[in-house]
Design brief:
Strand 12 (188-193) and strand 13 form a beta hairpin. This protein has helices at residues 6-26, 33-50, 161-168, and strands at residues 61-69, 75-77, 80-82, 85-87, 92-100, 108-117, 120-131, 136-139, 143-148, 151-157, 178-184, 188-193, 198-204. It is an alpha+beta fold. It has an 8-stranded antiparallel beta barrel with strand order 1-5-6-7-8-11-12-13. It starts with 5 loop residues before the first helix and ends with a strand. Helix 1 (6-26) crosses helix 2. The chain is globular.
Length: 207
Amino acid sequence: MTTDSPSTTTDNFINLLSQVAVAYREGGKLPTADIVVDALLTAEKTTKQQQINYPFTSLIGNWRLCFATGTKKVRQRGGIVLGKGFYLPKFATAQISFSSNLLPSLDQGEVGNQVKFGPVGLKLTGPAKHLGKKNLLAFDFTQMQISVFNRLLYNQPIRSGKANTEDFYHQPIAKLPFFAFFLVTEDLIAARGRGGGLAIWIRSSVE
């Protein structure tokens, strides 16, 4: 049982996760997966206890996935079985992006999920809505793009496209995929997915 004060605990996990972002970006020594998972769980617990809210505007930008966990193996954490965490290899780029759609609601926008492996890129885009009090961001993918050597070869709607987008905003959160964000800084974001896994993304300048 820790006796650290809330401020000391907060400094510890933010510093550790900030080190992850810097080391991953610059090729430095990375903390072990277990230490990173512990820091993520502390961040999640602190956000809930202190009722910290992150606005949708703080998520806008491009973020590269650098660390994630599974949800089936190893140990019981936070009410689900968390697997070992792992760093994504540099040769495979996975990026998520959030943008505002300039509607009257500041809690609505667009999400993009892009994966690149060598010259081949796959990008899914669709609507997103933010539930501020719970730090939940629900989303759906309605458009798919495939490119090779940055040349767009395929760009088509999926699962009824625009019609599905219009219906999205009326769907209850229980029927949609979502992320529950529990740490947002200028350099990184961290969240738990609907399936229970944890993830860290670091800010990216690449679109």
